[in-house]
Amino acid sequence: MSTSPDNRPRRLRTEIPKPLDPALVASLSAADLGLRRGVVALAAPSPRWAEAFTGVANVLNATRPAGIGAIEHIGSTAVPGLAAKPILDLAIGFAAEANLDRIHPWLLGLGFLCLGEKDASRPDLMYGFEIEPGIRLVNAHVIEHGSPEWTGYLAFRNYLRTHATERDAYGALKRSVALQNPGDRIGYLAGKAEFIHTRRSH
Question: Which of 100, 145, 175, 197 has a Cα-to-Cα distance from 109 of 20 to 30 A?
Fold first, then answer.
C-alpha cells in the first residue's frame, strides 16, 4: 500500500551520504560532469553524458524497488549538441500505488543526498549525487510516472532533440541567462521558464 503524502514522514535534506556505490562512481568519474553547488555555468555538449546516463541507469535498474516505472535522461545533457550545466538530470518515475518510503532508503543506500521534499518551486522530490562534497554530478527527480510533470520533462527533451533550430535558440538563451545570473540558480531558471513552458505543449 502506498503512503499518503500527508501522512508519510518529511524527508529532510541530508548532507552526509552513505558510502557511494562504486558502480555509480565509475560511471561518473570521467563523464565531463560536475558543478559546484550555487554556481551557474554551462559546458560544451559531450557524448560522455549519454554514456554516463547509461551507466547510472544500469545501476538504478538493477537495484530499484517495486513501483519504479521508468528511469529517463532529461534536461539539457539529454539533448545532443546542446550546452548544459554539467549535471546529469534523471527522472525516476514511480507508479501511483508505489510506496515512496522504499524509494528513499534505496537512493540513500546508493550514496545519493536527499535535497528535500517537493514544494511550490518544484514538483518533484529531489536527490543529488556527489563524489567530491559540494560538486554536484547528478540530480535525480522522483516524479509520478505519467503525471503532467513527467510528461512535460519528456516532451521538452524530445522536442529539442528533433528541432535543431529551437535547440540552438534555447542554447543561446541559456548562455545569455547564465551570464546574467552566474551565482543565482533561481534567476537562471526564471530566465528560461517561458521558453520551456511554450515548447512543452508541442
Answer: 145
> C-alpha grid cell for residue 25?
562512481
Set of cell numbers at residue 135: 560538486
Q: What are phi and psi of 70, to 5 degrees?
A: -170, 160
CA distances to 80, 92, 142 from 147, in Å: 25, 12, 11
Residue indicated by cell numbers 524530445: 158
Predicted confidence at residue 6, as pLDDT, reads 42
Spatial separation of the C-alpha atoms in residues 69 and 111, rounded to whole Å: 21
Grid cell listed for 95:
507508479
Alpha carbon 57 to chain centroid distance?
Answer: 12
Q: Which domain holds residue 187?
A: 22-200
In a domain, 3, yes or no: no
At position 45, the amino acid (one-letter code) is P
pLDDT of 4 strictly over 60: no
Give the position of cell 560538486.
135
In angstroms, what CA-CA distances link 7 with 2, 11, 104? 11, 12, 15
Helix (H) or strand (E) run with residue 169 in it: helix 164-180
Q: According to the model, what pLDDT value does residue 2 have?
A: 42
Question: Residue 124: pLDDT band by 50, 70, 90 thresholds?
Answer: confident
Give a yes or no: residue 46 inside a domain: yes
Q: What CATH number does residue 44 fall under?
A: 3.30.460.10
